[in-house]
């Protein structure tokens, strides 16, 4: 058996806020939304989920009361989402210019250059590029 892809689903406090973040940071576009009965907070739409996409990459955002609970922040900080943008340096400069709390670009001992920033719910968004030709890269 082999797999074709993986699609993460993140619990979020606000779908609108998360869609805006991933659009601004990584160019994701809104794809689909499903509303469930009942809201999760004052001024927010009902609970439910949304799909966002960028090229062949998809993510689901699930809005729930549990995701808005500050008690889960430490667990969310342990979740890392790794993305490989087309031009990491350009993206890094753009995020810094817009005031995002992105870390400095660093080279790793395993042949990558990386930086990271938190998303609105505390998940860690990691941005990475290989420092060598992918044909020579170890398998993912």
End-to-end Cα distance, whole Å, is 17 Å
DSSP summary, beta strand count: 8
Could you tell me the radius of gyration in angstroms? 16 Å
Oligomer: single chain
Helix content: 10-25%
Largest β sheet strand count, sense and barrel closure: 4 strands, mixed
Low-confidence stretches: 39-44
Task: Looking at this protein, list some descriptive labels.
single chain, 140 residues, alpha/beta, 4-stranded mixed sheet, 22% helix, globular
Write a structural description.
22% of the residues lie in helices and 36% in strands. It has four helices and eight strands, in the order E-H-E-E-E-H-H-E-H-E-E-E. The longest helix is centred in the first third of the chain and has 12 residues, at 15-26.
Task: Give a concise summary.
With 140 residues, the protein is α/β, with parallel strands linked by helices.
